[in-house]
Amino acid sequence: MNNSAPRIAPREGIIDEVKAAIGDAFVEAKHAAYEDSITVRRESIVEVLRTLRDSFAYQQLMEIAGVDYPQRVERFDVVYHMLSVTKNHRIRVRVTTDEEKPVPSVTGLFPVAGWLEREVFDLYGVLFEGNNDLRRILTDYGFRGHPFRKDFPLSGYVEMRYSEEQKRVVYEPVRLAQDFRAFDFMSPWEGAEYVLPGDEKVQGEAPGAPTPAKAGETKK
Prior knowledge:
By secondary structure, this protein is of the alpha/beta class. Helices cover 15% and strands 25% of the residues.
């Protein structure tokens, strides 16, 4: 089946060229779904991104994302999404770390990284060495924990809101809109034990109920 989504323009040989340029910083590479990704050593991330910017025309840092794999020793991936405007190509650069080992900040290369690193710190707890403004950015003041970690508890925390009645900021126990994310991923049409509104008609009419007239039997 054809996919109408735009594909990233191919850049033949880019992985081999980058691998040769960054040397020992290279760990592994993968090409999947028309996208190129490389994993590099954590301590080399600044020089790797500098090389991509200055030697391979990846001018823009579009995003920094976090991923949590609790079963690993270095449980976090920090993923940098780079865009070449002139080559119309994107490449992902990945490093790994844990709760204690800091990742070198790339704010000296891309000022926008200041905000992006704060997001990853706030949501995952990843530390960035050299970011002089590493504060929370998405969670409330005084929030404890990092909500995008897979083992983050969903109860026992408080949330902040402005109270019109008290004319001040108040903290209250978290009220989860969903039932602790306890999804069974079961379609209601495939074995659910509850009955959806209207499905009771499948069982037919109760004994003694009048039989609905067919279209040809309707009196005019």
